[in-house]
Amino acid sequence: MSLPVNMHVMIIAEAGVNHNGSMDMSCKLIDVAAEAGADVVKFQSFRADQIISSHAPKAAYQTRTTDAGESQLEMVRKLELSEEDHASLMAHARSRGVGFMSTPFDLPSLLMLTQRLHLETIKVSSGDITNAPLLLEMARTGARVILSTGMSTMGEVEAALGVLAFGYIASKGEEPSTASFRAALASDAGQKALRHRVSLLHCTTEYPAPYADVNLKAMDTMGRKFGLPMGLSDHTPGIHIPIAAVARGAQIIEKHFTLDRELPGPDHAASLEPVELKQMVRAIRDVQAALGDGEKQPSPSEMANHHIVRRSLVAAREIKAGKKFGPEDLIAKRPGDGLSPFFYWEMIGKVANRNYMIDEAIEL
How many other C-beta atoms can be found within 10 angstroms of the C-beta atom of residue 364? Predict the structure, then answer.
């Protein structure tokens, strides 16, 4: 997998639920993302009772960072944003010159984002890669999809893409089924729809994710297999893994950020603080610029040094006209504005056509 020439890496600053249910914090997170230079700030859209049962346990990382006595449902319910909240945050993001995106976790939230708030691109959580009914409805909206693939096998990613392909191309009334998903994925129309509308993010769903579990090479493997734009949704500490992913060809980087890692809440501890987010964006832009076009040729900045650091053939001692050049007569010295040392062997045995002083440039 390689980054197309001049491809702009999309950086998604994942605010997620790090607003703690506060609109004031939400707006501050948008401000931080804009000031850092992120392309998009992303939130999460859900109705807690639509996605979490009353007896669902918390993940270990959630228990460490929130009230251990409350259920997952109680924790998540406090982090809901209303439709009015979303509209207000979209307007604020627009005023700050940063894109707005969200992850819908349920059908009402999906319809809110795509039909009423008119978002053209939505993000799919790794946890929903097997949620075929929701994936199908996402594709039926016609929205572009960025699909995270944490906890997934290659087969599960392929199955999810089949659902999306079917949702994009199926005629009205055509019944969804495993067979129809496979057929849609194999079809030219399905492949075309995926190439135009779907990107994949490699991901390790742990907070924070151990470096040894990241497996960045899997991003390359998925890119080769599916031929879709690839990126990384990163949960490791620090900023160096996203930078490495861009060097490997990632076209999208998603990273959680917070106003303060010490704040209470499930995701703050595994998020970047504002200064770190800015550092990551700057480093990614530097790496993106450094990748270049892959052609090996002198750069414009190098050419000013070309004749300074390269060498030319010059006289190693005084040479009289009519003498044959021998090995003791020639030496390669700076500057490189004369005869290339590659002509050394060609000059040996030739007759000098004039007198040369020491260090005088040799002429053919």
Answer: 9
Global pTM value:
0.89
**Section 326-331 average pLDDT:** 98
The DSSP line for 176-218 is P-HHHHHHHHHSHHHHHHHHHHEEEEEE--SSSPPGGGT-THH
* Burial of 187 (C-beta count, 10 Å sphere; 0-12/13-18/19+): middle
236 and 321 belong to one structural domain: no
Distance in angstroms (rounded) separating the CA atoms of residues 185 and 168: 10
**Residues 162 and 91 reside in one and the same domain:** yes
Contact partners, residue 187, CB within 8 Å, separation at least 6: 165, 169
pLDDT tens-digit readout, 256-313: 999 999 999 889 999 999 999 999 999 999 999 999 999 999 999 999 999 999 999 9
Cβ atoms 23, 53 nearer than 8 A: no
